[in-house]
């Protein structure tokens, strides 16, 4: 229900309880008996306190509620990796000329990962190295 509508209904109910007591209190005014007036006032005070407490205890719907905004998604930035630089292989010969049968024999016996097509082997660092026989 609307707040205004609730307050109006409660006010009418309070008036319906309090107003009949005023009529009887004024009818006996000739005798100067004010006990009915005091009772009506007390009933009105209690009723007003109850109605006011009920209205004050209503939850407020005007409180601000924080709502997280939708996250914005961005394309991930490209990762740039440096390109390997290929330098010409300088072969220092220690007695065996590269690409000769003796050189093939020496490199294949010395390095288990020797590739005869490229003349390289894979070292402990994971890179390919040219076989220099010596």
From TrEMBL:
Highest taxon of the lineage: Bacteria
Record carries keyword Transmembrane: yes
Cellular component GO terms, alphabetical: membrane
InterPro entries reported in the protein's UniProt record: BA14K
Predominant location category: membrane
GO molecular function: carbohydrate binding
Record field: transmembrane: 37-56
Membrane topology according to the record: Single-pass membrane protein
Family matches, as Pfam families: BA14K
Cell compartments where the protein resides: Membrane
Keywords, sorted A to Z: Cell membrane, Lectin, Membrane, Signal, Transmembrane, Transmembrane helix
N-terminal signal peptide: 1-27
Family: Belongs to the BA14k family.
Cited function: Has immunoglobulin-binding and hemagglutination properties, and can bind to mannose. Essential for virulence. May be involved in LPS biosynthesis or polysaccharide transport.
Protein name, entry field: Lectin-like protein BA14k
Gene source species: Sinorhizobium sojae CCBAU 05684
């Amino acid at each position: 229900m609307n707040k205004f509508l609730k307050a109006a209904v409660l006010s009418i109910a309070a008036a319906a309880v309090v107003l009949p007591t005023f009529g009887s209190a004024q009818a006996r005014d000739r005798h100067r008996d004010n006990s009915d007036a005091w009772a009506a006032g007390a009933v009105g005070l209690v009723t007003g306190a109850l109605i006011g407490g009920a209205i004050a205890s209503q939850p407020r719907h005007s409180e601000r509620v924080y709502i997280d905004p939708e996250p914005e998604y961005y394309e991930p930035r490209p990762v740039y990796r440096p390109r390997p630089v290929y330098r010409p292989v300088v072969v220092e010969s220690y007695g065996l000329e590269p690409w000769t049968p003796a050189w093939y024999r020496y490199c294949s016996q010395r390095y288990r990962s020797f590739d005869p097509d490229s003349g390289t082997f894979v070292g402990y660092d994971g890179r390919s190295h040219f076989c220099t026989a010596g």
